[in-house]
Amino acid sequence: MNKLKTVDSKVLSILRECPETRFDDMKLILCYYNRYSYMRVGELSLEDIVYNYKGYGLPCFETIRRARQRVQSLFPELSRQCTGCCCDVPDELKIVIEVR
Question: What's the pTM value of the predicted model, to 2 decimals?
């Protein structure tokens, strides 16, 4: 299986199981690294991860970010869209002021 497809399928799994990762790439990356590496990457320093991710057999941050974008384009229900917040305000807003 293509390595890229493997990353996409793993990101899909994380986005389905951990909704908070849909909105934050760093949470997604940490979850990915902790879940799919042979060690607890969260216990390593950022410097160690940045310099040694290939040695640990992990994809770079950008690969995971791009995989999230691809997955979310195919599965809009896993996208960053929020419900019931400012994102739902229509483009055209009409304000009526009534004076009595």
Answer: 0.73
pLDDT digit string (tens) for the chain, length 100 residues = 455 579 999 999 999 999 999 999 999 999 999 999 888 887 899 999 999 999 999 999 999 999 999 999 999 999 876 443 333 334 455 566 667 7
- Residues 36 and 58: beta-carbon distance below 8 Å: yes
- Give domain limits for the chain: 3-88
DSSP assignment of 36-97, as one string?
HSSS-GGGS-HHHHHHHTTTTT---HHHHHHHHHHHHHH-GGGSS--SSSGGGS-SS-----
Four-residue CA torsion sign, 9, 61, 47, 55 = positive
